[in-house]
Amino acid sequence: MEIDVQQGDIMRLDVDAIVNAANESLLGGGGVDGAIHRAAGPALLEHCRTLGGCPTGEARITPGFGLLARHVIHTVGPVWRGGTHGEPALLDACYHNSLALAEQNGLASIAFPAISCGIYGYPLEAAAAIAIRVLRAPRPEGSSLQRATLVAFSADMAALYRRLLSA
């Protein structure tokens, strides 16, 4: 699977799925989550209401509705509490479960924000290292996934992703 880095707005990407760093209710919130819900329109919220939420580390898929992306994969990242409360395993699970859902639905392209790196406070370098490790892991035979994009909210985050990918 090819991995690339882009800086900017994840909602402007023409991909099969964008990943939403959601909260457990899946009913929208601040940051990227709220922006995705606003851009997708009210049908996304109505659909999310039928899902019954999503525990931290798991993922759920919905149509993209008003978005350019055809699907939204909602995953709930861990809140950083010092790294001793299972945060690395939970963040790993976010990426792993999002990729698995994409494959189960025959998707070829997926774009990830920096999960848990906003108000959830995950240290950027540690989070980026987990994302890249999971994305570089071999995919199951016959995987539909061809491309994963790491979408950075800042030039510094894009540079961090690129540095770790080149290592």
From TrEMBL:
Alphabetized SMART domains for the sequence: A1pp (SM00506)
Top-rank taxon of the source lineage equals Bacteria
CDD domains tied to this protein: Macro_OAADPr_deacetylase
Ranges for domain Macro: 1-167
Name any one GO molecular function.
O-acetyl-ADP-ribose deacetylase activity
Enumerate the SUPFAM superfamilies for this protein.
Answer: Macro domain-like
List the InterPro entries: Macro_dom, Macro_dom-like
Q: What is this protein called?
A: O-acetyl-ADP-ribose deacetylase
- Native species: Pseudomonas mangiferae
